[in-house]
Design goal:
With 830 residues, the protein is mainly alpha-helical. It contains 44 helices and no strands.
Length: 830
């Protein structure tokens, strides 16, 4: 059968290459395709079967006509593939048949144009093209292009003109088309006109006109529903559910939806099945709801497939089954369901019901984004930043997140802030940019950043320390329901005065009462260190125990140490080792180092050097700083392991490079004394200086001693005295004793017996008594008392019992007399 020129032109138009159409002759043999009398009965039989839903019998008839080139059969097949009537929905195949049907003039030509318009307007399975949809709707309504214009095209074309979708917005044209559709008895057009008149879209609000169109729309829908039209029942259900144009009536909405579902109206069956599954507005009947959803899903309804996927993912009405969930969502995603596309992306990302596959996750996030899912670009950006990283992916992730953040997505702004703060972006991190995006997220209403902004203000750094601002942000976080913010807020308040400390302790107790194991740990540390003003080791141990019982390994480690030392609890080496072992079993590297030290030393039972070193090595290899230091010291000294000075040096230097000041001190002393390492006083002093610069009091005092005696260079007495004074102010007993001696000797500083007495008294109060014994003995000699160490210590104890200024002055006078007598005796002896 030869195709007419008109048919070829329409096919070209459908491919987007030609617009002009030639007018077809509406006469037999002149371009109008009229079925022969011998086929009319066959076609009418097919139509009747289709009207009764018997597509298994109707489609072979239509296919036979289509195979012979009759547009009537092509149209019916196209419509079946477009709507999934008796066949699996196939939009591409539907377009093929409908374009062939529309290429020739027949009484179905207007219908074919209309169905093509619907396909391109919906865009499900083919690219959405509202401009092409509008042209097809226009052709369906054009009497020059159809035997009979298909008036159903007026309503969707009116909506395109109303919204400016694919055509220039033209409200007058939209009104004209809505009026045309309404006059043809289209209830949807009546209802749309009612909304426009009620909203004053045409210049004035007209409630009377709106009421007329509402009444007509409802009347027409009810009339069609009475004739068994399921779509009319579904529209009535939506109307009474929305309550926009008529009074909301959920019961009536459910009755109409149930009737539509009973007639296998796919969308109604899906929505009503979901209502039964959840018990939403109707008594819950999960199994009946699932059966309806499966029927719709198996008929190709992507919404039902997605709902079933969620039901299996969450275990609603069915046992939780992530593989089933993935399967249903995959079917829906293949029909361009954006929610299911994002589900597949996350499933591939997380390994939920399918093996993890980063490339597939990226592909489905991109698909979801193209389908308009709001969080797809944000999730894709996060995935790209979640290693393995390369510069191209980092830049792409930042661009995606930045676009979303600037469009007002607070979670994207927060993700960017996290990336800058964690150093993933910005050449090792950029706290200023992190704060900028956190604030942007806060302005967008993302409350989870409140605590992050508060913490950054408390930490200072780039921002400068702003405790009050940090507290204000954390208060906002707590007020917004962020229970985790109570702990850092409580810690911040503990740094303040009395009322602030009370508030801090109250917050920590609240968090602990709610089961926050970290809050319990902080309370333990607070009582252990006396941060809140009162040191209470027994209470500290109790809080550590509560935290440990909830599985917190660092609490187990602290509690174990307290049992080993007998601090706050009765000394119990077995319990101490048990808690450390439990922390080690949880992978706590610091606990490995701690337990390793105990086993090496044998302080809690027989020494186990082999296991001790093994634990310390394990922890050191993971980068645990303390473990590296302990291992380095053990290898350097060779007391419990075969000496390996070079290995020890490397581990100590690794720990020192991580900022461990104790490792710096060990290296400094080893180089100065030549213990395990080749003697190098200058290098040793340099290590002590690095530790002292980080505030290590013992290192500062040792550095002062080196400067006093010219170790590693020329003596620097003035610098030595300055360092000793700083250490003495920090309570270092040895520094206090040395300063006391220096003031008594009067060589590097002006002799000042009272200052000397003050420093010596401080040293004695700090426990450094040996430095005073010789002076005390000399004083007792002056008094004619027995000069031995026991008597000196007894005398010092009496002096130290009243450490006021008078006592210090008296001690200073006594020391001056003692020194003068010593000098006189030395002169006589000389």
């Amino acid at each position: 059968m030869t195709r007419s020129p008109a048919r070829r032109i329409v096919l070209a138009f459908a491919a987007g290459t030609a617009v002009a159409l030639v007018q077809s002759c509406a006469q037999p043999g002149g371009g109008y395709w009229k079925l022969p009398e011998s086929l009319k009965a066959e076609y009418k039989e097919g139509e009747a079967l289709a009207d009764h839903g018997r597509y298994d019998q109707a489609l072979p008839i239509f296919r036979s006509l289509a195979d012979r080139g009759y547009p009537q059969g092509e149209y019916e097949l196209g419509r079946a593939y477009a709507r999934g009537l008796g066949v699996e929905r196939d939009p591409a195949k539907a377009v093929e048949y409908l374009e062939r049907a529309a290429a020739d003039v027949s009484r179905r030509r207007g219908h074919a144009y209309y169905e093509l318009g619907r396909l391109y307007l919906g865009g499900a399975g083919i690219p959405r093209d509202p401009a092409r949809a509008a042209r097809y709707f226009q052709l369906a309504l054009d009497p020059q292009e159809t035997v009979t214009p298909h008036e159903a095209a007026a309503e969707p074309l009116a909506e395109l003109y109303e919204t400016g979708d694919g055509v220039p917005a033209d409200l007058d044209k939209a009104r004209e088309l809505y009026d045309r559709a309404a006059a043809a008895g289209d209830p949807d057009a009546h209802l749309r006109l009612a909304r426009l008149h009620r909203g004053g879209a045409f210049g004035t609000v007209s409630e009377e006109t709106a009421a007329f169109h509402v009444a007509e729309g409802v009347r027409l829908l009810e009339a069609e529903a009475a004739q068994g039209e399921a779509y009319a029942m579904a529209n009535l259900a939506r109307l009474y559910e929305d309550g926009e144009l008529v009074a909301a009536d959920p019961a009536k909405a459910n009755r109409w939806r149930q009737r539509a579902a009973a007639l296998d109206h796919q969308r109604s069956r899906t929505v009503y099945g979901l209502a039964l599954l959840r018990g939403d507005g109707v008594p819950a009947e999960p199994q009946k709801g699932l059966a309806m959803l499966r029927a719709s899903a198996q008929a190709g309804d992507s919404s039902a497939q997605s709902i079933l996927g969620n039901a299996y993912a969450e275990g609603v009405g069915v046992p939780k089954d992530l593989q089933q969930a993935f399967g249903w969502h995959r079917q829906a995603a293949q029909q361009d369901d954006p929610g299911s596309a994002i589900y597949l992306a996350r499933a591939y990302r997380d390994g939920a019901g399918v093996a993890r596959n980063r490339a597939e996750a990226v592909r489905w996030f991109e698909t979801a984004a193209a389908l308009g899912h709001q969080s797809a670009n944000r999730d894709l950006g996060r995935l790209l930043l979640d290693g393995p990283l390369n510069e191209e992916e980092i830049q792409r992730a930042v661009a995606l997140l930045k676009t979303e953040a600037e469009a007002g997505d607070g979670e994207s702004a927060e993700a960017l802030g996290d990336a800058y703060e964690d150093g993933v972006v910005g050449d090792g991190g950029d706290r200023g940019m992190a704060l900028r995006y956190y604030r942007m997220a806060a302005r967008s209403g993302t409350k989870s950043v409140y605590s992050k902004i508060g913490r950054m203000n408390l930490e200072g750094g780039y921002l400068g320390l702003d405790r009050r601002r940090g507290i204000n942000w954390l208060e906002r976080a707590v007020a917004s329901g962020d229970a985790d913010a109570k702990v850092p807020l409580g810690q911040a308040y503990l740094l303040g005065d009395g009322p602030d400390r009370q508030r801090g302790m109250a917050l920590l107790r609240d968090a602990a009462a709610a089961g926050d194991d970290y809050a319990m740990w902080v309370l333990g540390e607070t009582y252990e260190n006396g941060t809140a003003g009162r040191r209470d080791l027994a209470t500290a141990a109790d809080w550590y125990r509560r935290s440990a019982q909830r599985g917190r390994s660092d609490a187990m480690r602290r509690l174990g140490a307290m049992y080993l030392d007998g601090r706050g609890v009765a000394r119990d080496p077995k319990a101490g080792l048990d808690w450390l072992d439990r922390a080690v079993a949880l992978g706590d590297q610091a606990a490995k180092a701690e337990l390793g030290k105990v086993l090496l030393s044998g302080s809690a039972g027989p020494a186990q050097p082999k296991r001790g070193l093994e634990l310390i090595r394990e922890a050191a290899r993971t980068g645990d700083t303390e473990a590296m230091r302990v291992l380095g010291e053990a290898l350097l000294e060779g007391d419990v392991a075969s000496a390996a000075p070079e290995g020890g040096r490397r581990w100590l230097e690794n720990a020192a490079d991580d900022g461990d000041v104790y490792a710096m001190v060990i290296l400094g002393r080893a180089y100065i004394n030549g213990q395990g390492l080749e003697k190098n006083e200058a290098l040793g002093v340099d290590w002590l200086r690095r530790a002292a610069d980080r505030g290590h009091v013992q290192a500062r005092t040792a550095l002062a001693n080196a400067y006093l005696h010219g170790i590693g260079g020329k003596p620097r007495p003035e610098r030595a005295v300055a360092l000793l004074k700083r250490s003495a102010a920090d309570g270092h007993a040895y520094a206090q004793a040395v300063l006391g001696r220096l003031y008594l000797e009067g060589e590097l500083v002006s002799r000042d017996y009272e200052s000397g007495a003050r420093y010596l008294l401080q040293a004695a109060q700090s426990g450094h008594r040996g430095a005073l014994v010789s002076i005390a003995k000399a004083y007792l000699d002056v008094q004619g008392a027995e000069a031995n160490a026991d008597a000196a210590v007894l005398w010092l104890s009496q002096v130290l019992s009243t450490p006021n200024r008078t006592t210090i002055a008296t001690l200073g006078d006594a020391l001056a007399a003692a020194v003068e007598k010593i000098e006189q005796d030395d002169g006589v002896a000389g």
